[in-house]
């Protein structure tokens, strides 16, 4: 059974100190199917990701695969009220 997650964007901080770390992180993110988009800011050591996922689970998964400390800076969840908006407009 697959859980239904809300659309959310999350900003993480992790140490990306070399090109090999950057490539490894990029490869990990591309293989994660729950992510829709990502942005790696190498100089600021920040990672922004968007998609339908559990923020805690994704942070733990990245930490385990990168073997580095991951700090969650910000989480924004977006509700999908598109169905309600469409019904309100029609009445």
Structure, explained:
This protein is an alpha+beta fold and 91 residues long. It has one domain (7-77): 2-Layer Sandwich (Alpha-Beta Plaits). It is 37% helix and 34% strand. The protein has helices at 19-31, 55-66, 82-90; strands at 7-14, 35-41, 46-52, 70-78. A four-stranded antiparallel β-sheet has the order 2-3-1-4, with helices on one face. A hairpin with a 4-residue loop joins strand 2 and strand 3. The longest helix has 13 residues, at 19-31. It is globular, with a radius of gyration of 16 Å. The protein starts with 6 loop residues before the first strand and ends with a helix.
Keywords, separated by commas or semicolons:
3 helices, about 90 residues, Alpha-Beta Plaits, 4 strands, globular, single chain
Describe the secondary-structure layout.
Blueprint: E1 7-14, H1 19-31, E2 35-41, E3 46-52, H2 55-66, E4 70-78, H3 82-90
Biggest sheet strand line-up = 2-3-1-4
Please indicate the percent range of residues in DSSP E strands (runs of 2 or more).
Answer: 25-35%
Structure classification: alpha+beta
What is the domain total for the residues?
Answer: 1
SS elements, strand count: 4
- Computed CA radius of gyration, to the nearest angstrom: 16 Å
What is the second-level CATH architecture?
Answer: 2-Layer Sandwich
Molecular shape: globular
InterPro entries: HMA_dom_sf (IPR036163)
Organism: Macleaya cordata
GO molecular function, one term: metal ion binding
Protein name: Heavy metal-associated domain
């Amino acid at each position: 059974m697959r859980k239904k997650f809300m659309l959310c964007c999350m900003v993480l901080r992790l140490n990306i100190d070399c090109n090999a770390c950057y490539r490894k992180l990029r490869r990990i993110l591309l293989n994660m199917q729950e992510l829709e988009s990502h942005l790696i800011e190498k100089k600021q050591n920040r990672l922004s990701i968007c998609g339908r996922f559990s923020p805690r689970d994704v942070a733990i998964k990245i930490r385990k695969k990168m073997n580095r400390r991951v700090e969650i800076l910000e989480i924004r969840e977006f509700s999908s009220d598109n169905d309600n908006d469409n019904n309100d407009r029609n009445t």
